[in-house]
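Quick one:
INPUT:
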């Protein structure tokens, strides 16, 4: 079930390589060691989950992957490119990534269609092409018919669908997601887990999801990267063996509960 070693992946098949990365933050009270030395590889098309207790550095790791934070030591490689070179971020590497946060962060003065198409507008894509892409993505994420609505008119789950569509609008190879369903009720969260799996199966993007919900991690992941308490380091990498597509009934099986129990025990100790 678990594997502490790095997988043997051909260079051309590596989506993200985290190599000896550490992160410290300067605060008025002194330096905070958020992440200890971390090494792992993610393959193209893999669905990986970062799991761990609150404050263990999951979001910090995701922000490092997204180029929103610079590592204190070590290097990150995205699609074979160095994310940072001589103190400067490689915009071409960042262009291959879409990011979804817990808050959908939709602009309230733009319709859903225009919110989704905004990254394309900023990239100079023509209006007709932007509209077609936005409509296609609305169908993909299950919000067709709501393209002309305002964000305030949609439920939290539907706003997150629109946020995912916006992150996919420019067809990035990698999708980074920071607790995107954390604010949703349990039933809506289950629905969104099913929908996210469906979107991943349809697009085969590399997805990295941050969560501290153990069942969510086991339901969605190919591999779970379990982090320790701060300073976060890899405690264990757990392979999830269940075939796809996965249905919610999987969660009641002994095999599923066995992995959940193992992860819960590791987190508690």
């Amino acid at each position: 079930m678990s594997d502490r070693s790095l997988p043997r992946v051909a260079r051309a098949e590596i989506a993200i390589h985290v190599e000896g990365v550490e992160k410290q933050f300067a605060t008025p009270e002194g330096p905070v060691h958020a992440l200890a030395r971390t090494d792992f590889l993610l393959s193209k098309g893999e669905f990986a989950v970062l799991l761990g207790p609150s404050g263990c550095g999951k979001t910090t790791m995701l922000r490092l992957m997204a180029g929103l934070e610079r590592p204190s030591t070590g290097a990150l490689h995205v699609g074979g490119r160095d994310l940072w070179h001589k103190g400067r971020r490689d915009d071409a590497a960042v262009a291959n990534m879409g990011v979804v946060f817990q808050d959908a962060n939709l602009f309230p003065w733009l319709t859903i269609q225009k919110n989704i198409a905004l990254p394309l507008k900023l990239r100079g894509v023509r209006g007709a092409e932007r509209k077609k892409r936005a409509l296609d993505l609305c169908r993909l994420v299950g919000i067709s018919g709501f393209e002309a609505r305002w964000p305030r008119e949609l439920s939290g789950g539907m706003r997150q669908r629109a946020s995912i569509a916006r992150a996919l609008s420019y067809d990035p190879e990698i999708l980074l997601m920071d607790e995107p369903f954390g604010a949703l009720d349990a039933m809506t969260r289950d629905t969104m887990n099913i929908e996210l799996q469906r979107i991943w199966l349809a697009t085969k993007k590399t997805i990295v999801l941050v969560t501290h919900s153990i069942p969510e991690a086991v339901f969605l992941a190919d591999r779970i990267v379990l982090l320790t308490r701060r300073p976060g380091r890899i405690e264990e990498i757990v392979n999830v063996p269940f075939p796809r597509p996965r249905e919610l009934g999987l969660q009641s099986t002994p095999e599923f509960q066995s992995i959940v129990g193992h992860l819960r025990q590791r987190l508690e100790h």
